[in-house]
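Hypothesis: this fold can be encoded by more than one sequence.
Test: take the structure tokens below, design a sequence, compare later.
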């Protein structure tokens, strides 16, 4: 007589989850072409290898001018500039804008040499080869500078990012044609029972035959969860046949799923195959339906045995197995396509048009916060930093802080970030973010990051160098970084420090006023001004390019490497990475400022742990 397997002690569901989580379901990292990347999950960080846009670009139709030529202009007293030619999108400029001149320019065209602003055509009058400008401009007005969307060397996408059409757009803009992705878990599916017949085959109901339901429903669930389903032939209730098919599947797949033959009856033999040839971790779970579930290992692969009844099999699969496949594939849990949330900040709009506002989501102690994400219509990163869209009616002037809004998610799978940070951009920070599960970071500079932290939206801010005002925050020391002037390799101009910038005929590329590097430079210029008995303004007026600012920490170095400047404000680590010379001007403390209302958030705790184990190896000038 066959020995009957009895269920004496049923494991709690929590133990079943832990047992499945202990199994290795992941495949190896692989490289796929951009054409095949949709739906896959990045295995490694992707940094921008070039600036986007790759040139200073006109944001509207109008005239390219030197901003200083327009100072003081208005409708009553316009400035007259000589029209010297035209610049069209996709065509290299053939003109140079010099003092007192202007060039007609199309949206998207390269801003010609000499120009640093674009005046919109509506604020001008053209007659007899002369353009009358009716408004004053500041440098950079209506110009999208090279790297304003995303700059070379900047963290573009992090590991664990699911690749959707939005990410493919960003990768395309960066010229990336292949990406490293997590391997898709291969899942072998075997239905057991002598009574099973494949759909499409003849069915003998008199013999008790039934069509196989589980192979196809479970395969569909595997694909939906991010795995690759492989169907194997049916296995009868014979031990040798069961062993052969299970062993074959285990040799070829990361996970084997069987359905049926898991109960305690005398003919249900699959548990004995696992006990004899592998490692049976669990047999029987305190759940209904689905009590006779098996969990174990066979021939080096993970194994889960599902009940035979289709409803039970699918229920157990969705409850216990699908989350593990999603985890291995890097897929998020499914969500509904529309959610409600609370606006974290007030947002104002011009009337007259339907506004599709890109927004991000953030969890705040059980509440869902919604915040606008918009870097301009030309910025692809607005989409990758957003989770969905809020439609704002044309008659709406503003959406108030605290107002409930409906968010149409880009995908039902969208999840808010585990932690939201803002502030300074930094290579060590990129490493820190890589060690977090699902972070989102908005690189807005130290000053703007601290301002947003004061307003209460982000979980943390990263500040480099001096901070203007005190901020209520839990402060964590991060690292120090050496900063200074990046110069061509060999330092051909023999730049020795700030004195040379002021006194010599050198061209500088600076950082924006929100940058911590810029604030340290200005503080150093204040000290130099005191030594000389001059004002800082006198010194900055003498520095060619002081007002020429770029957004990201590698951008000045890229300008120097391209021969567009003699010196750029940056980090020693960047100089070594790009093979440039470096003139040290000091070091900066980089700190993490934690929102006092979020100190207990799990994502913030993960951030603290990651900070404690952060490695700065290979980053020159960091300690």
């Amino acid at each position: 007589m066959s020995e009957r397997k009895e269920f004496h002690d049923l494991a709690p569901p929590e133990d079943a989850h832990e047992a499945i989580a202990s199994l290795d379901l992941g495949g190896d990292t692989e490289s796929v072409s951009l054409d095949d990347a949709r739906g896959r999950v990045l295995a490694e960080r992707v940094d921008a290898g070039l600036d986007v846009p790759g040139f200073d670009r006109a944001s509207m139709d109008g005239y390219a001018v030197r901003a200083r030529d327009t100072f003081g202009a208005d409708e009553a007293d316009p400035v007259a500039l000589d029209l010297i030619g035209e610049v069209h999108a996709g065509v290299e400029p053939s003109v140079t804008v010099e003092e007192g001149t202007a060039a007609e320019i199309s949206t998207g065209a390269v801003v010609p040499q000499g120009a640093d602003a674009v005046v919109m055509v509506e604020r001008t009058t053209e007659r007899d080869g002369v353009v009358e400008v009716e408004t004053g401009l500041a440098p950079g007005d209506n110009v999208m500078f090279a790297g304003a969307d995303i700059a070379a060397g900047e963290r573009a996408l992090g590991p664990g990012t699911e690749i959707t059409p939005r990410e493919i757009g960003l990768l395309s803009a960066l010229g990336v044609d292949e990406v490293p992705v997590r391997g898709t878990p291969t899942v072998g599916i075997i239905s057991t029972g002598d009574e099973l017949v494949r759909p499409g085959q003849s069915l003998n109901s008199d013999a008790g035959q039934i069509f196989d339901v589980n192979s196809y429903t479970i395969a569909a669930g595997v694909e939906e969860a991010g795995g690759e389903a492989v169907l194997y032939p049916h296995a009868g209730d014979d031990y040798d046949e069961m062993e052969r098919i299970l062993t074959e599947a285990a040799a070829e797949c990361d996970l084997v799923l069987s359905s049926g033959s898991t109960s305690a009856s005398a003919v249900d033999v699959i548990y004995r195959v696992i006990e004899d040839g592998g490692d049976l971790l669990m047999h029987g779970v305190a759940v209904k339906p689905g009590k006779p579930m098996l969990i174990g290992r066979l021939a080096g692969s993970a194994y889960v045995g599902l009940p035979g009844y289709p409803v039970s099999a699918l229920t157990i699969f969705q409850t216990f197995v699908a989350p593990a496949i999603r985890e291995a594939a890097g897929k998020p849990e499914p969500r509904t396509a529309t959610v409600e949330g609370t606006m974290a900040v007030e947002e104002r709009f011009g009337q007259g048009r339907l506004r599709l506002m890109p927004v991000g989501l953030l969890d705040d102690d059980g509440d869902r916060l919604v915040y606008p994400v918009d870097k301009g219509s030309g910025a692809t990163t607005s989409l990758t930093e957003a989770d969905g869209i809020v439609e704002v009616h044309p008659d709406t002037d503003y959406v108030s802080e605290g107002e409930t809004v409906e968010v149409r998610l880009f995908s039902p799978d969208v999840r808010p970030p585990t932690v939201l940070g803002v502030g300074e951009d930094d290579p060590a920070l990129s490493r820190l973010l890589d060690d977090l599960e699902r972070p989102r970071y908005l690189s807005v500079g130290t000053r703007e990051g601290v301002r947003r932290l004061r307003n209460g939206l982000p979980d943390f801010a990263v500040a480099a160098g001096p901070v203007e005002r005190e901020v209520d925050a839990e402060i964590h020391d991060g690292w120090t970084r050496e900063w200074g002037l990046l110069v061509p390799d060999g330092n051909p101009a023999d730049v020795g420090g700030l004195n040379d910038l002021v006194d010599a005929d050198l061209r500088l590329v600076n950082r924006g006023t929100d940058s911590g590097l810029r604030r340290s430079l200005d503080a150093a210029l204040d000290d130099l001004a005191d030594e000389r008995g001059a004002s800082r303004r006198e010194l900055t007026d003498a520095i060619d390019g002081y007002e020429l600012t770029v957004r990201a920490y590698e951008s000045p170095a890229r300008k120097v490497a391209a021969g567009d400047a003699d010196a750029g404000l940056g980090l020693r680590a960047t100089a070594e990475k790009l093979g440039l010379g470096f003139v040290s001007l000091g070091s900066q403390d980089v700190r993490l400022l934690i929102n006092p209302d979020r100190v207990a958030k799990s994502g913030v705790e993960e951030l603290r742990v990651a900070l404690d184990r952060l490695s700065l190896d290979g980053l020159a000038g960091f300690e």
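The chain has five domains: 13-26+185-329, 28-52+149-183, 57-144, 338-416, 427-612. Residues 57-144 form a domain with the Molybdopterin biosynthesis moeA protein; domain 3 fold (CATH 2.170.190.11).
Hypothesis status: open.
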